[in-house]
Design goal:
Elements lengths: L1 H15 L4 H21 L4 E2 L2 E2 L5 H16 L6 H22 L1
Antiparallel strand pairs: 1-2
Helix pairs in contact: 1-4
Amino acid sequence: MEGTISIDKLWTFIQSMSLSADNQRWLADRLIENSKKNESASQYTLKDNTIDCPYTQEEIDRRLDIAEQQAAAGLSIDNDEVFRMLNAEENEENQLMEVTQ
């Protein structure tokens, strides 16, 4: 449910932007291109009650190590902070819309 809410907020934010038709097409093309990459990377197959993963355990461990190092160095933000930022942006936009009305 929370994932759907954040996607809805993102969509509302995108709609509030003054994007030309060319910019909208560019954004759509990037999203489609990225989703195709993600689809092919997440095609898991079940055989013998195990799931084939596109990453080896070593790659997963390496990615986790990097993420932990970035978090310790303050180079990342958690989901709660992302939601706070989105809510703050939405509140600012609502205040601007109220002022212009």
